[in-house]
Amino acid sequence: LLILLLDREHSLLNEFVYRVYPLPAYGVVALLAGLGAARLGGWLQRLPTPAGRASIRGLVLAALVLLPLAVHLGQNRRDHYDWAERFARAVLDELPAGAILLLHADIDALPVGYVRLVLGYREDVTVYGTNGLLFRNRPYDPWRVTANDARNAALAELIERASGPVCFVGTRGQFGDRFGLVWNGLTSCYDREQKKVRTEVGASALERYLALQSARDADGWTMLAADSVDAQMVHVLIEEAFRASPADRPRLYEAIDRARSGLRGKTSFVGYSLAVGVPLGTDEALALLDEASRQTDRAYLKNDLVDLHQLTAMVHTRAGQPEAAEAALWRAVELKPAWRNAALPGLLTRLFQDEREAAVARVARLDPDLAVVEEVYDFFVANRDDAGFALTMKREGLEITFGRDGSVGVR
């Protein structure tokens, strides 16, 4: 069952998350090990001399204790580890004087909370937990306020009445449509006066981030935490790269390239350039995407690779290369054949518009959930000349709409 669960997204993150599922099996193994030890003890009782029994029993006990310690010593010895503390100090160093810091996930709440409250670093900063559970400062009572709307209203009220800046770790806040944001790098602060997003990343903030990149511990959880930091910093670095002078850009490009989420960095860079209407040259964009595809590893989910292929299709489309664009869409859909694949509507739109029945059948064969595509295609062909034609397929949490022109929409 575990293997089936990991089939579509066999990444580092899911490996760590799904480790809880074999816990009952671990219990059974522990029971069997105990029974085996008891049986072994019974065998030892048959030895001819008490001294021999005691010696062998002692050796077995020592082996059971010392062997696991020796095998895992390199991983369990943590006296050299300081990434979490450096991350926490880097976050706190970015904050304006007298700021309120909203902490949410394990990656920020635990290390930052420890460095601030236990080590007493940056005592001018007040920490709150956005879910109201971890810290003494609470935006709401988590046992009484349970609805998301009420919780968001309490957080918004805290931002409104705060005398100083209210900040959080990352670049994406819950109230981006109500308050503006100032990106500092690892952190962002809400702007109560303006509703736009602007960056104020200083040289020191960039240096702190680069230091977190260059000395990363090899354990899995730190890799995941560092990957999360890279993913949020990519947007800041891209914004800075477009704003920076040509002389300063190589430094930002280096930071993007060195990120563990280099794939996300390069795809985000190309996507951002398309979104703001300053597209890179076709050759340059395709070179970045090709380089990103060679950097893939188990840290990335299939959605990351889908985004890469979808962006590749967009670049080819803008360059007037429809065949190459379609090939990229096929790679994206075959990688994750599901309705929630963001590349699927684009591929189906091409196939429906060109009435390519055999290719539609090929899509339907990719996954049982997509088998209905053939029936929808037949209905489309039979009714596309009807002026009132429209077809909407609704499933739980999903709505698929097919227009008269063959366009496919999924939400």
Helix and strand composition category: alpha/beta
Give unreliable regions as ranges.
none
Form type: globular
Determine the number of helices (DSSP H or I, runs of at least 4 residues): 18
What does the main sheet amount to?
A: 6 strands, mixed
Give the oligomeric state of the chains in this entry, treating copies of one chain as homo and distinct chains as hetero: single chain
Proportion of beta-strand residues: 5-15%
Query: What is the number of beta strands?
Result: 9
How widely separated are the two ends? 29 Å
Give me the secondary-structure topology.
Blueprint: H1 2-5, H2 12-17, H3 23-44, H4 50-71, H5 73-76, H6 83-94, E1 100-103, H7 106-118, E2 126-129, H8 148-161, E3 166-169, E4 180-183, E5 187-191, E6 197-199, H9 203-214, H10 220-243, H11 249-258, H12 262-275, H13 282-294, H14 302-318, H15 322-335, H16 344-353, H17 357-364, H18 373-383, E7 391-395, E8 398-402, E9 408-410
Parallel strand pairs: 1-2, 1-3, 4-6
Antiparallel strand pairs: 3-5, 4-5, 7-8, 8-9
Features:
18 helices, 411 residues, 9% strand, 3-stranded antiparallel beta sheet, alpha/beta
Quick structural overview:
Helix content is 56%, strand content 9%.
Structure, explained:
- The chain has 411 residues and is an alpha/beta fold.
- 56% of the residues lie in helices and 9% in strands.
- The chain has 18 helices and nine strands.
- The strands form two sheets. A six-stranded mixed beta sheet has the order 2-1-3-5-4-6, with helices on both faces. Strands 7-8-9 form a three-stranded antiparallel beta sheet.
- Helix 7 links the parallel strand 1 and strand 2 (126-129).
- The model has no long low-confidence stretch (mean pLDDT 82).
